[in-house]
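Quick check before the chapter quiz. The format below is the same one you will see on the exam, so make sure you can read both the input and the output lines.
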Amino acid sequence: MPRLLLLALASAVTAALPLQPIVSQPFTTVYAGTTVDKPLQAYRPDGSSSSVAARRFDVFAFQVDVGGSYRFENEQVSPTNWDHMFHLYADCFDPLSPFTNLVVFRDLAPIILDNFALESDRKYIAVTTGYSSATGSYSLEITGPSTARQVTCSSCATDDPADEPPVASVPEPGSGLLLLSAAGMMWLVRLRRPRSSQASR
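Here is the expected output.
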């Protein structure tokens, strides 16, 4: 069969087939955490009131590469019925200032946050605590257009440039030798410069 006829048949078959939309598959990131034996305690929002209470906490700091709608599910693992809370912060997290940068929190199991908008390359900190003094392990699932990349958790106290210690200026290893060479060249130029004739008396 001639090549032109084969190409024509292939084009006709392709044109007859309906176009299928390309659907991006959601990505799910699973983080296994625990508040058991955590050395620090956070003052966190207590329920829906403005009061705070010291509780042990665990953090998962992350960023997403694609902005959009994400789903969070935070589930108790062991013990299966320990009373826990979920808090989401943006940019940084200060355990001693629980309302700073707080985006949302949930305290009723099952903890599910649907259709929550996240910005690409912005740092978020997911904080899990016990509602009371209870501690336990948990599973956090984040599902959306991209994976949640774990990053270093930032403290609001150290993110402020004003709080950063000043950095001392340290000369480069070769700068001292360069200065000595320049001084030597200036000395040689001065030696080779002709002396001006003395004025006749």
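If your answer matched, good. The CA atoms of residues 86 and 128 lie 5 Å apart.
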